Known about the structure:
The chain is an alpha+beta fold. It has 5 helices and 5 strands. The chain folds into 2 domains: 1-121, Orthogonal Bundle (Butyryl-Coa Dehydrogenase, subunit A, domain 1), CATH 1.10.540.10; 122-178, no CATH class. The protein has helices at 10-37, 42-50, 69-82, 84-103, 106-117, and strands at residues 123-127, 142-146, 149-153, 162-164, 171-175. A hairpin with a 2-residue loop joins β2 and β3 (149-153). α3 packs antiparallel against α4.
Amino acid sequence: MDAEDVGLDEEDIELRGLVRDFVEREARPAAAEYEARGEDPAQVYRTLGALGLAGIPFDAAFGGSARPYRSYLLLIEELARAWVALAIGLGVHTLVCDAIQRFGDPALKEGLLAPMLAGERFGAYALTESSSGSDAAALRTRAVRSNGRHAPRRLWGLPPAQISDCSSSGRISCETKS
C-alpha cells in the first residue's frame, strides 16, 4: 500500500484512479479554454455526472453512490489539483443536492435530485443579498409561509442576488431565513 492510500478503501482507490484519468484526459486540457472565455464548463459537468461523479455522497435510490463524504472530498481534491473552479462548481452543486436530499419531499427528490446526480442538470447557490457575500448567516431576507409554502420576501432597497454557477445550472437554491 502506497502512503497516499492510507485510510482509503478499495472503492476510494478505484475512484481516485477514475478521477485522475478524467482530469488528465478531459478536465486539464479544457480548463484554460473555459477560463479564457469566462464560461462555466457545462459539458464537463455533464461528463462528471455521466461518470457517476456528481452524486458520490447521495442516496443510491436517486442515482447517487451512497459513499461517505471522505470519497466526495477525495474527488474534490483530485479535481482541484487540475482545475480549482471545476472543483468549486461541483461543491456548489453538491450543496444544492444536499438541501434537496435533506429537506425535499419525495416528489421533489425524484423530480430534481435524480437528474442532478446524473449530471443532466446542475445546481447553483443564490444568496438573496449582495451585502451578505459568502456569509449566508448574514442574510436578512426572510422566507414567509403562505398557502402552505415558503416564499422569499425581498427586502427592498438591497442589490439583486449573487448567484454562483448560474449560467450552467438547471436549478438554483435561493437562500433565505425563515
